[in-house]
Structure formats: C-alpha cells, structure tokens
Design goal:
This protein is an all-alpha fold. The protein is 76% helix and 0% strand. It has four helices and no strands.
C-alpha cells in the first residue's frame, strides 16, 4: 500500500515540477538576449543545474528504493534555498541601481523562485521515498535555507 500511495504522491510532485519548468521556459523566452547582467544569469544557471542534479538523484533513489540517497537529496535542499536568497539579494541591488533592469530582474526572480520550488518538490519526493522504504516519515525539521522573506532593501541615496 505504501508503494501505491507513494507513487501517486510522487507523480503529483513530478507534475508540479513540470509546471514550474514550463513557467521558467516561458519567462526565459522573454529575457533571452545577452544584454543582461551575466553574473545573475550564471547564478540562475548554477541554481538550475543543482535542481536538475537533485531531480536526477531523487529519481535514482526512487528507482533503487534507496532511503539513504533520498536523505541526501532531502539534506541538500537548503543549498538551493541559499542560492535563491543570494540571487534575490543581488537582483534587488541591480534593480535599485538601475531602473532599466527591473523587468529583467523580475522575470529572473520568478524563474529563480520556480527553481527553488522545484527543489521543494524534489524534497517532498525524497520524503515519500524514505516513507515507502522505511515505513515511517523522516523525523526532524526540513532543512531550509531560504531567508529571502527577511531581506530588507537598503534605502537609496
């Protein structure tokens, strides 16, 4: 029964990951030219690479019913969260310094938030794999590294 319920819940998370990926693709089509800050784009790419690696690892964990690998994925979500917070801070700085960057940075932040949410859904899958394999939920608080809600913009001038 755990296997069936797990597969159903995992499929829902995979569907949401697909929705986020589609949203990212749509926004990237808007901001695809090379006139934007390369550093921000590189950080977004690095964040996406980590999320893709996490998806690959969690799917391998599922295929192998490997609870230890699932825990490894679960523990690494805070890295994606931390990358998001860092990118959020940097994009705010760009927007405050150059009003022309606001549209680009807004799209970029939506992409970054979608990647951060992909990481959260990957973590959900890891938790479900652990439950399927071990028969009990993971104990302890979920690792979080997203502190963007507490970021305060410095006054300009």
């Amino acid at each position: 029964m755990r296997v069936i319920v797990g597969a159903m819940r995992i499929s829902i998370d995979l569907e949401r990951i697909g929705d986020f990926a589609k949203n990212i693709a749509n926004r990237m089509a808007v901001i695809k030219d090379d006139s934007h800050p390369r550093g921000l784009m590189k950080r977004l790419e690095d964040m996406a690479d980590l999320a893709i690696a996490q998806i690959e690892n969690v799917l391998d964990s599922y295929a192998q019913l490997d609870a230890a690998k699932a825990i490894s994925v679960w523990n690494r979500d805070k890295e994606i969260d931390g990358m998001y917070t860092s990118l959020f801070r940097e994009a705010l700085t760009y927007m405050m310094e150059d009003a022309h960057s606001i549209t680009f940075c807004t799209h970029l932040l939506f992409c970054a938030k979608n990647i951060e949410r992909i990481g959260d859904h990957t973590t959900n899958i890891a938790e479900m794999i652990y439950f399927v394999v071990r028969g009990s939920p993971l104990k302890g608080a979920r690792p979080k590294g997203d502190t963007s809600a507490t970021v305060v913009a410095a006054p300009s001038g």
